[in-house]
Description:
Number of domains: 1
Distance between the termini: 28 Å
Largest sheet: 2 strands, antiparallel
Number of helices: 1
Number of strands: 2
Shape: extended
Amino acid sequence: MIQIGEKGPTFKLEDHLGRTVDLQDLLGKGHVMLLFYPLDFTPT
């Protein structure tokens, strides 16, 4: 488990517009926050 303040592993994924985003490209350019909503598109 990653602890608060610890650097996360590098990875690539698609944003909401289908563009590939590489975490490595964002590091050093400011703060990065990753949010995961596992239930947003899950039927209730």
